[in-house]
Amino acid sequence: MKLVGYYGRIDMNKIVKVATASVVGLISAAVLAGYTGVGSPKVNAAVITQSELHTGSSINSYIANNKIQPVGITKELHTFQMFKYNTSGNKPVGVVFHYTDNASNYSARNEANYEINGGWKNAFVHTFIDAGTILNIHDTNYGCWGSGPQGNKRFVQFELVTARSRNDFAHSISNAAWYVAYLAHEYGWNLTLASQHNGSGTLWTHYDVTHYLGGTDHTDPIAYLNSWGYNTSQFLDLAKAYFDYGGFYDTITSNVAKTYNATISENNRNDGLYATGPYYTSDQTRVPATVSAKTLNGQSVKVLRQAVTKRATWVQIQTSSGAVWWMDKRGITVDYDKVLSSRTVSYSAYLDQSYRNDGLYKDGPYMTGPSTFEFAAKHASQYDKQPVSVLAEETTSRGTWVKIRLSNGDTWWMDKAGIKTYDSISGEKSLGNVTVRVTQDKRNDGLYASGPYHTSAQTILPAAKTLKKYNGQTATAIREEKTPLATWVQIKLEDGSTWWFDERGITFFDSILSKNDNTSTVIVRQDNRNDGLYASGPYMTNNSTFVPAWKTAKKYNGQRATVLGEETTKRATWVHIKFADGSTWWMDKRGVAPFSFDKVLSTSNVSYNAQIIQNSRNDGLYHDGPYMTGETTYATASKTAKPYNGQAATVLKEETTVKATWVQVKLQNGSTWWMDKRGILAFDPISNRVNVNYKVLINQSSRTDGLYATGPYYTSLATKLAAVKTAKQFNGQEATVTVEATTPRATWVLVKFANGSSWWMDKRGVTPQQ
C-alpha cells in the first residue's frame, strides 16, 4: 500500500511488518490506535438491475445478474490527525480512488490495522474496501494524508484492496461504487469523472491527482482496474446506478412552512403516520407506519409544514391533542379560510417586496377557495415598487388582504403587508433662504426632485443621485417638510439645481443673536483651554468657520489684547480680538479675562541701605514701578536681581500692592529698579543724625563695644558683621564725640580718639565729661 502524505511519498510495503504483527497479536488494534467505537452499516444497500446500467461492462453485468448487494459501511473511527478541508464550507468536493498495490493482502481489515498500528498519524486514508467490507477508519468531514498537498485538502479518499478472484473483484467494485454513491448523497455531489472534465469532476483517481494537481507521482488504480478488464467510465456508471437505486433514502426536495386547517379524509385510504419526517426519508421512516391516519378520519387538524419527495407531497399535521405527524397530503381535505370582513376602498400605494415574495391571487385572498389554495402562479416581487390602486380589503384569520390594480390594468389579491402607502406631509414651513453647509462626511443622502422621499410614486425608489458630491459646499435652504420618516429640506445648490433631501445631511450655521462694538483690554487666559481662532467670524457662523480652527489662542496665553467687539450665538459669546502682533481673530469670550493693573495701596519715601539677597530667589526687576501696576510691568521681567546677589543697594521708596511690598533700589552701578522687598536684606535706618562736639571718657569696664569705621552697626553692608576691633583698648581714655546717630537698636556716637582715629560705637560705652 502506498500513501502520499503532505511531506512526501511513503511506500509502506517496504517497511518491515514483523514487529507490528507481533504487537497486534498481543494487543488489540483498537487499543493501539485510540479506536472510538464500531458502528453498524449506516444504510442497507440495495441490489441493482441490468436496466439501470448504461455503459457496457462484463463486471457490472456480473454484479447485476448475480444480484450482488453492497455490504454497507462499518464505521470504526480512530484518533488520526484532524484537519479541515480548504474548501468552501470546509466540506470535501470529491473522492479519490486508491489501490493498495499489495498483491498478497486481500483484507481491508489487515490493511487498516497496519495503518492504524504503524503510527501513521500523517499518512492514511478514510476508508478501506474489499470484497466483504467497507471499513471507515477516519471521519470524512476532516481531511487525510493520502494524495499529496493538493488532494489532501479537498477530497475524501479510499483504498481498494487486491481481489483474489473475479468474483471478489466484482464484490469489491460493487462496494466501492456504492460507497462513492453514498458520499455523493452525503455531500450533495453530482458524480462526474475528473478525467472527463479536465480536472474539475467529483470522482478522481490517484492518477488524476498526479496529472491535474501535482504533489504526487502515483498512477493507481488504473493498471489494477485494467488487469480485470475494467475502467473508470464503467465504475462511474455503476456508482451512478447506486446513486439512483442504491437504497438511499428519499431526498426531500422542498420543505416549507404552511399554516392552514384541514380535515382527515381516509374513507378510501389508509395512510401511515410518521413522527420524524415523510416516509422513507430516514431510518425511522423507512419501515411501514405502525399508526394509521384512519384512526383520525374526520378530525380537524392544523397543517404546519409541507414537504416534497419523489414519492408524494407530504404534510406535517397537528391534532387537537397536540400530537404531530407526517402523512400523505392526499389524505386530507383543506378547510378554506372564511372572509371575516370585507369593504370597498380607494387609495394609492406601491408594492414593497424588498424582503418579501407575496403571491398574487386572481379570485380572492389566499386560502379562501380552491383557486387560491396552492402556491400562487404569479408573485408581486416582479412588480416591486410599482404604483397600484387599492380597490378593496378583506380580512381572514391570517391577516388583511387587498385587491390591487396594477398600472397595466390587471387586478389581483395579495397580502396587505406587501404594499406601502406614501408618507403624509406635515409641518410645512419656509426657511427664508438661509445659507447652510452640505455635511456628508459620514452620510450619502439621496436627492429627490419632486418632493421628500416616499411621498409619491416618483420618490419611493432609492435616489439615482446623492448629495455626497456636494459635501462641504454651501447651499440655500428654501423649505422644510416633515414626514413620519424624517424632516426634509428643499435646497438650492451652488450649481443652481434644486432638490429635497434629509435635513440631517446639512448643517445650519449659527445665527448671530446679538452684537456690540464695545472695546476693552483683556488678558488671554488659556492655561486650561485651547480656544480656536477664526478670521471671518465666530465659530459655525459661515462656511469658513465650520471646521475646527487650525490656529488656537494657546500661543497668546498671558498676553494682553484689545477687544474690538462682541457677537453672541447659541453656543457662546465671541470676542473680536486684536493681539499684540497686530492680528485680529474671533474667539470664545471665556478664553479671555478683563485686564486690571494692581493698585498701589500705600507708598512712602525711604532712605536706607540694603543687601540684595537672591540665594534661593530670582526676583524680577521692573523699571517703571512694582510688578503688575502698569503696562510696562505686567509681563514677566526680562531682567532679574540674581546677578546682583550679595551686592549693596540703597532703598529709595517702598510701595505696597495686593501681591507684596515692593522697594525701589539703587544698585552700585547707578541703575534704579523696583523689586520684591523679600529679595533684600534691609539694614537699620538712621532716624536722627546730628553733629556735636563734646568730651567723653571711654567706659568699657563691663563692656566690649565694637568699633565701626563707616557708620553705626548694621546700617550698611560694611557694618553688617560683628566688629573685629573693640573700644576695650581705649578704656579710661578721653575722647571727643563729633556726631550722634539713632537707629532702632541704639544711639551711636562717632568718637575721635587721642591717636587721631575716629570710630562709631554704642553711646552707652562712653561717659560725658563735665
TrEMBL record:
Molecular-function annotations in GO? N-acetylmuramoyl-L-alanine amidase activity
Please, which domain of life does this record's source organism belong to?
Answer: Bacteria
**Keyword Signal in annotation:** yes
Q: Which Pfam families match?
A: Amidase_2, GW
UniProt source species = Lacticaseibacillus thailandensis DSM 22698 = JCM 13996
The entry sums up its family as follows:
In the N-terminal section; belongs to the N-acetylmuramoyl-L-alanine amidase 2 family.
Question: Is Signal a UniProt keyword of this protein?
Answer: yes
Keywords associated with the record: Repeat, Signal
| Residue span(s) of domain GW | 254-337, 341-424, 430-511, 513-597, 602-685, 688-770
* Protein name in UniProt: Autolysin
Q: Which SMART domains does the UniProt record give? A: Ami_2
Q: Which InterPro entries match?
A: Amidase/PGRP_sf, Amidase_domain, GW_dom, GW_dom_sf
List GO BP terms, alphabetically: peptidoglycan catabolic process
Q: What PROSITE patterns does the annotation carry? A: GW (PS51780)
